[in-house]
Design goal:
InterPro entries: Connexin, Connexin_CCC, Connexin_CS, Connexin_N, Connexin_N_sf. Residues 134-201 form the Connexin cysteine-rich domain. This protein is mainly alpha-helical. Helix content is 68%, strand content 5%. It is elongated.
Length: 219
């Protein structure tokens, strides 16, 4: 697939993000998307062909591969990148809605359609919570599916139609495990950035509300 859409989406959101949000976009684009496209994809390219079991029993290798890799790590990583980036569409759609509303009414309804206030702030906060939730869900998925982020060199399989317990060998296990750790580390960084931005926005909004209330009381 072409990753141009994801790149354009992230670039569009960049206009409405805070400083922390722009760091998140840089981490996703440089340390996740580019690493996936340039290096990681090739590591898993022939994972099924290079998975070998010490038996010639028809169907045994396929069954064992499906058991140990129910979902390809690289496809799960691609799905994670897409799902985690999609909540940003909420912000883009909300800004587009504001701009369209101003055109329909032919008057200035907002000081700036992209200004982070009111409904747009709520949308942005929801998108941050969704992104954090998706990151955590995918980390749990990786942990459950791949035995705590491990890629063993040798696995034993005794599933039918294998005649007995056979040894199966995974190709490039060390390289795959390094990329898996890298994926986990970048996901962790993104979670920290999302939580930091969420806390920052809530704190700034609380301060703004307090100052408004205080100034009213003074009057």
């Amino acid at each position: 697939m072409s990753w141009g859409f994801l790149r354009d989406l992230l670039s569009g959101v960049n206009k409405y993000s805070t400083g922390i949000g722009r760091i998140w976009i840089a981490v996703v684009f440089i340390f996740r998307l580019l690493v996936y496209v340039v290096a990681a994809e090739n590591v898993w390219k022939y994972e099924h062909d290079e998975f070998e079991c010490n038996t010639k029993q028809p169907g045994c290798e396929n069954v064992c591969f499906d058991h140990f890799f129910p979902v390809s790590q690289i496809r799960l990583w691609a799905l994670q990148l897409i799902i985690v980036s999609t909540p940003s569409l909420l912000v883009v759609f909300h800004v587009a809605y504001r701009e369209n509303r101003e055109k329909r009414h032919n008057q200035k309804l907002y000081r700036s359609p992209g200004k982070m206030d009111g409904g747009l702030l709520c949308t942005y906060l929801i998108s941050l919570m969704l992104k954090t939730g998706f990151e955590i869900v995918f980390l749990v998925l990786f942990y459950k599916l791949y035995n705590g982020f491990r890629v063993p060199r040798l696995v034993k399989c005794d599933m039918r139609p294998c005649p007995n317990a056979v040894d199966c060998y995974i190709s490039k296990p060390t390289e795959k495990m390094i990329f898996l750790y890298f994926l986990v580390a970048t996901s962790g960084v993104c979670i920290v950035l999302n939580v930091s931005e969420l806390s920052y926005l809530i704190f700034m909004y609380s301060i703004k509300c307090y100052l408004k209330t205080f100034s009213k009381k003074q009057r």
